[in-house]
Design goal:
about 675 residues, globular, about 75% helix, mainly alpha
Amino acid sequence: MHEGVGQAAEDERGVASRLLFLIAVAFSLFQLYTAAFTPFSSLVTRAVHVGFLLTLTFGFLARDGLAKGKRLVPLLFLACALLAAGVAAYQWVFEHELMLRSGEPTSLDLWIGITLMVLVFLATQRMMGWALPLICGVLVLYAVYGRWLPEPLNHRGYPWEQVIEHLSFGTEGIYGIPIYVSSSYIFLFILFGAFLERAGMLKLFTDFALGLVGHTQGGPAKVAVVASALMGTINGSGVANVVTTGQFTIRLMKQFGYRAEFAGGVEATASMGGQIMPPVMGAVAFIMAETIGVEYVEVARAALIPAILYFVTAFWVVHLEAGRLGLTGMPKESLPNPWRAVRERWHLVLPLAVLVYLLFSGYTPLFAGLVGLLLTVVLILGASLSEAALRGAIRTLFWIVLGLICAAFFRWGIAPVLVLIAVLVLACAFLPKSRPTLPDLVAALAEGARQALPVGIACAQVGVIIGVMTLTGAASSFANAVLAVGQHSLFLSLLLTMLVCLVLGMGIPTIPNYIITSSLAAPALLHLGVPLIVSHMFVFYFGIMADLTPPVALACFAAAPIAGASGLAISLQAIRVAVAGFIIPFMAVYAPALMLQGDPGWLEVAYVVFKALLAIWLWGCTAIGYWLGPMSWLERLWAFVAAALLVAAVPLTDELGFLASAAFLFWHVWRHRRSPAPT
C-alpha cells in the first residue's frame, strides 16, 4: 500500500517537473520572439514576463512541496500559479480598456491589482526571505497613512484605490523600469550565459586559468580569481558564479592547503566581481543605464578600470596569503596548456567578441544580446554537424559559409541568422550523431529561464519601491538629510550612503538595494558635485560589497556548503580579500578620472591608476600582515595610514602618501634582509 502511494507521488513529481520544463522553455521562446520582432506593446511584454516569472516560481514551490510529501501546500501554490497566469492574461486582453479607464478603475481592476501585489509579495518572500517584502509593505502603508507622520516624513496621503492602481497598472509600479530591463536585456544575457556554458565556455575559462597561473605561488586561488573574472564577462550573477566555478576552485584551493573559509572567501569575492566586469555586467548595470538615461556602453566604460582593480586586489591578496602560508603552485607538467585550450576552443569567444563590438558600436543591448545569443546557437549546432559528418577542406568551407551568412545580419538584420538556425536544426535532426545536440539546446532554454527567476522576481518587487517613491516624493526627505551632512563634509555623506547600502544589503539583494539607495542618496551626491555615473556607481559598488558583509552575506553563504565552512567565517575572510573594494568607490568620487569621467587625459588617468595600485599594494599588506616576510602591527598600521593618505584628496595627502609608502618599502626590505632566513 505504502509503495503504491510513494510511486503515485513520484509520478506526480515527474509530471510536474516535465510541465515546468515546458513552461520554462516557452518562457525563453517568448522572450526571444519579443526581442526579435517586438510584436506586443511594452506593457503587455512586461505583464506576460511577470506572469511567466510568477507561474514558474509557484510551480517550482508546488513541485518541491510534493517532494516533501505534502498535499495542501502544493495545491495552494498551484492555485497561485494559475492566478498569476490569469492576471497576465487580463493585462494582455484588456490592455486598451485599462488605458481608457486609467484613474477610474473598476472593482474587478482593483481585485486584479490586489492579486498581483499579493502574488509578487508572496513569491519574493518564498524566494528571498522576509526582508524585502517587509520593506515594501512598510512603504505601501506609508503611501496610504503617511499623512499621520511628523514632518518632514509626512505627505498628503493617498487612498488605497489610487495606490493599488498606481502599483499594479501602468509603468510606475510593478511594471516599472526594473521589469522593463528584466524583460528586455537581463533575460537575454542570462540566456546567453546559459548557452555559452552549454557550449563549453566554462571549461575553456578554467583550463586557461589553470595553465596560466596554476603553477605560480598560491596558484589554485589565483585560478579562482582569473576563472571568476572571465566568467563575469558572460555571467553577471555573483551567486551563479559561486555555484559554477566554485565547485571546482574551492575544492582545488582546499586541496593545496588553503583554509576552507579563506577558499570560500576568495571564490565569493571573485564571483561578486562579475557584476561589475564588462562587457556583460550584472542586472543593475542595465537598470542604471535606463534610470540615468545613458547608453549601457557608458556604464561599462565607467566600470572598466575599477573592475580590473577589484580583481587585481583579490589576486594580490591571495598571493600574499600563499606567501604567508608557504604555499606553492601546482606541478606545471600536470596542468593544461592555456594557449592550446584557446586554439581548440577559440571559436567560443566569437559571440562574446561580436557582443562587445556591437555594444561599443552604438547598438542597443537588446540587439547585441540577441545577436550574441543566436551566434552561440549557430556555433553549437555547427560544431555538432562538423564533428559528425564533415572532414578536411569541406569542414573549413562549411565554417566559412556559416560565417558569411551570420555576417549578413549587418545588412539584413537577424532574419538570415534565424533561417540558418532552422536549417542547422533540421540537419542535426536527420543525423544520429548530432541529434543529441537538440535536447541540449532545449535544456539551455529551460535553464536560462530558471536562472532568471530570482532576478526577475526582485525586479518586480522593487517596482513597488519605485512606485511609492514617485507617488509620495519620499526620496526628497532622505536627500535633504544627506545634503545637510554634506554641507559640512562630503566624506561624511559618502560614509552615510555606504552604511545605508551595507545595512540594506544585509537583508535584500543587489538590485533592490541599488534601487532604494540610488533613489534616496544618488541625487543628493549629484547635488554635492559628484558626477552622475560616479554617484550611481558608488551606490552600486556598495550594494555588491553588502553581499560579502556579515551577518547576511549571500555570496558567502552560497559558498559555505561547497567549502564546508560557516557562511560567517567565509564572510570575514571575503572582507580581507576584497579590502580595496571598499576604498575604490571613494577614490572615484575624489578622482572621477578613475571611472573615465570628466574627459580626462591619459596622463591624469595613469596617475590615478598608479595611486590606486599603490594603495591596493598597501591595503593587501595590511590585511594579510605579510609582504616579503611577516609584518609587525606597527608596519601594518604604517601601511594602512600610507594607503589612506593616497585615497584622501586634500592638499599634500598625495605627497605624504607617496613619502610614507616609500619609507615603508625601504624599511620592510631592509628589515627582511636583516632577518635570518626561515628554516
